[in-house]
Each structure stands twice: as structure tokens, then as C-alpha cells.
Write a structure and sequence with these properties.
By secondary structure, the chain is of the alpha/beta class.
């Protein structure tokens, strides 16, 4: 008998049995309503592995009485699509075909564009799946003809019943403590297939018809970590890291830092901490720049696991520090003017005058040296004439910047 993995044996055959995805497959979910209505447009399923994309495609093919063809873009070609097209209307596919194209991001632009002539015919319905953001990897011509549905990691509470069923199917005689099912469900990181693989391993290796928590911990170790240095998880975790610090949440900050470090991506953590120190804390607490740089240098000299300590210190310091983005706002406003062609000539009295003949050219003749005046300041125009009234920097409302504002308002006689 041909071996069939447990994940395939327990694969749901109806929408009601699918684990997770309530936002699209719940009673009021759009995808569920579309499937039940018999209306099956071209679709793109986007989400991580093991969350039901292939299962739902199989259910759609079964409910619409269409032959399901499964292709993987890493090995398939347009010739494979054409072969399917040639079978339409024959005994092989009397009601048309549903083509499930996995990992569509591996089709190049020409291959993706070649799909159009087949899906626009109407006899082929395309369901493409991808673990990468389709808006980055799928070309507009395909996107405009498909409905995108996002599949999300399945929550542990939804995985646990499936784990129990899998143990019963694998070996009804097994004694499986509740703690084992809970651990496998939590450790799979939202990947149901990964949970089924763990169950299969545990069932096959059980001693005395008992599955122990220790065995479950070994079988599922580190499996909850989802991370791809070149994919969505990388950027999503970094985004969560910076936004947590910007939002002054030290607990979330160390959570995302831990995910980066556990994935072995200390470089990204260090780089992002230095960016945050300048972008989000900035002038509200200038010492943060030096402190964070010192923490990053220390981490790079120590290496892991000790590096986690100064990096955690840096993350917590930034999360609990006062915040100001006045620096980045100022430079971005100035850059916007430059890129819009608003520059103008440097005033003659500010131009370099340290060479023979500069005076004859009118360079630096009326420049007033601020250090010769009280408080080292004298009123004069520094911006080009075309931008003389521009204001890029606006003092933040934190104590540090407000103290600086009060000082210069007094010096300049601002009322």
C-alpha cells in the first residue's frame, strides 16, 4: 500500500472541517459565500505554509465538479498549462478545469502574462497560491483578474482539536495527555501541517502506547518560529519592533527583539535600534544616540547569547524614552523642496571667501560672525532668497526641545 502522510489522511473535505480562517471561511466570510454560491472567480491565496490554501482549493474543485490540476511554479511551465487547456471538453475534464498553481511568485513576468490567454478563456479557473506578498511578486495583469484572499496562521486553540483527531487517527490506542496536545498546537506556529507531522512522529515513536510531554517538546522544538530574512515575516517583525518602541511599549519591544535574535538576525536588530534612536527618540533625548550605539557595539563584540543583554537594554531605553520625530520631519521637508527644484543660490556673504580674489567677486563681504555678538547670535539670512521664509524644523513638545525653544526665543526676542 502506498504510504500516505497523516496530514493528507486528515485533510478536510468540507469547509466546515477546515481549521482556522474564520475571517474568510466563517459563516459570513466572503470566500465561503462565494464558494457556496457556485461562483468561482480566479483567485490568489496568500499566506504562510500549512494554513489550508491547498485544502480549500481541493474543496472548491470538489463542490464545483471540476477536475483539479495541481502545479508548482518551481517546476511547472506554460507548456503544462497548455496541456491542461488541450484536455478541456474531453472526458478528462468535461466541466472545465481548476488549476491550483502553488508558489506563483516563481513564475517570471513572461510566464505570468502567458497565463492570461488561458484564464480569460473562461474554461480554466486559476487559484494561485503564494507565501509572499502578491502585491510585490505577482504582476498587475494577473492581480487585476484575480481576487486576493489572505490566509493567516491558525491560532493554537483552533489547532488543538485537529491535533486530538490526528492522534486518534494515527493510533486510537494511544494515551495522549491534554498537555501534549496543547504543546503541539502551540508549538506549530500556526502551521497545521507542521502539527500533523509532529503528531505522526510522536505516534510512531510512542513507548507503551503513551505520548509524553518531553517527547512532544523534542518533536516540536523551535517549530513555532516563522521567519524569512527576505520575505514578509522579516519586514513585518521589524515593523512591529519599531512601532512598538515608537508607541512606548517596552514589553512588545523585547518580544519582537527576541524573535529577531532567536531567528539569528542580530544584524537587523542592531540596525533598526540605531534608526529608532535617531528617528523616533531623536532630539527629545539626544543621549539615546550614543547609548544605543554603545549597546550595539557591545553586542557585536560579545556575540550571542550575551549580546541579547545590551540589545534589550537599548530596546527598553528607547521604548521608555520621550519621543520626537522633529529631526526626520525637518530633513524630509527640506528634501521635498530640493526634489521639487526649490533651491536657489547661496547668499553671497555666506559663500566661501578663503581664497585670493574672493572679495572682488563679492564673496563674504557682509557676513556677520555670530561669535562676535552677545549669546553668539546675530540676525541675518542664511537660506537662499527663494526660500528665505521656509520653516522645516518645528520644536517638539518634549522638555528638551521646549527648553531649547525657550532659550532661543529669549535670545532672539521672540514674543
Amino acid at each position: 500500500m502506498k504510504f500516505q502522510p497523516l496530514a493528507d489522511r486528515i485533510r478536510p473535505t468540507t469547509l466546515g472541517d477546515v481549521v482556522g480562517q474564520p475571517h474568510i471561511l466563517g459563516k459570513s466570510g466572503l470566500l465561503r459565500r462565494m464558494i457556496e454560491s457556485g461562483n468561482t472567480p480566479n483567485m490568489i491565496f496568500y499566506g504562510p505554509s500549512g494554513v489550508g490554501k491547498t485544502t480549500v482549493a481541493s474543496i472548491i474543485a470538489s463542490q464545483t465538479d471540476r477536475k483539479l490540476y495541481r502545479l508548482n511554479a518551481t517546476t511547472a511551465s506554460i507548456a503544462d498549462i497548455k496541456k491542461i487547456f488541450d484536455e478541456l471538453g474531453t472526458l478528462m475534464a468535461p466541466n472545465g478545469a481548476l488549476v491550483y498553481l502553488d508558489e506563483i511568485q516563481y513564475f517570471n513576468r513572461k510566464q505570468q502574462q502567458s497565463l492570461l490567454e488561458f484564464i480569460e478563456d473562461g474554461r480554466i479557473t486559476l487559484i494561485a497560491s503564494t507565501t509572499e506578498n502578491p502585491y510585490f511578486y505577482v504582476y498587475n495583469a494577473i492581480l487585476s483578474r484575480c481576487t486576493v484572499f489572505e490566509f493567516r496562521p491558525v491560532e493554537a486553540k483552533d489547532v488543538e482539536p485537529a491535533v486530538r483527531r490526528a492522534f486518534r487517527l494515527a493510533n486510537p490506542a494511544l494515551e495522549v495527555p491534554d498537555a501534549v496536545c496543547a504543546h503541539v498546537a502551540a508549538a506549530c506556529g500556526g502551521d497545521v501541517r507542521k502539527a500533523m507531522n509532529a503528531v505522526e512522529l510522536l505516534a510512531a515513536s510512542a513507548r507503551n502506547d503513551t505520548v509524553t510531554l518531553e517527547d512532544a517538546q523534542q518533536a516540536a522544538q523551535r517549530s513555532s518560529m516563522r521567519y524569512d530574512r527576505d520575505g514578509d515575516q522579516h519586514y513585518d517583525i521589524l515593523s512591529g519592533f519599531q512601532k512598538s518602541i515608537r508607541g512606548s511599549d517596552p514589553d512588545a519591544a523585547v518580544h519582537y527583539l527576541a524573535r529577531l535574535l532567536e531567528a539569528g538576525d542580530m544584524i537587523s536588530a542592531c540596525r533598526r535600534l540605531m534608526v529608532i534612536a535617531a528617528e523616533d527618540v531623536g532630539l527629545a533625548y539626544p543621549p539615546a544616540l550614543q547609548i544605543v550605539k554603545a549597546c550595539v557595539d557591545m553586542a557585536n563584540q560579545l556575540g550571542m547569547p550575551e549580546a541579547r543583554i545590551p540589545l534589550a537594554d537599548a530596546a527598553i531605553l528607547l521604548a521608555t524614552a520621550p519621543k520626537s520625530n522633529s529631526g526626520i520631519t525637518a530633513i524630509d521637508a527640506a528634501l521635498a523642496d530640493i526634489r521639487a527644484g526649490k533651491s536657489g543660490e547661496v547668499p553671497a556673504y555666506l559663500k566661501d571667501a578663503h581664497y585670493a580674489g574672493a572679495a572682488k567677486l563679492g564673496r563674504g563681504l557682509t557676513y556677520q560672525f555670530p561669535h562676535d555678538y552677545p549669546y553668539h547670535w546675530v540676525e541675518q539670512q542664511y537660506l537662499p532668497d527663494t526660500l528665505k521664509d521656509a520653516q522645516y524644523y518645528i520644536y517638539g513638545d518634549n522638555k528638551t526641545e521646549q527648553r531649547a525653544k525657550a532659550y532661543w526665543d529669549a535670545v532672539k526676542g521672540v514674543k
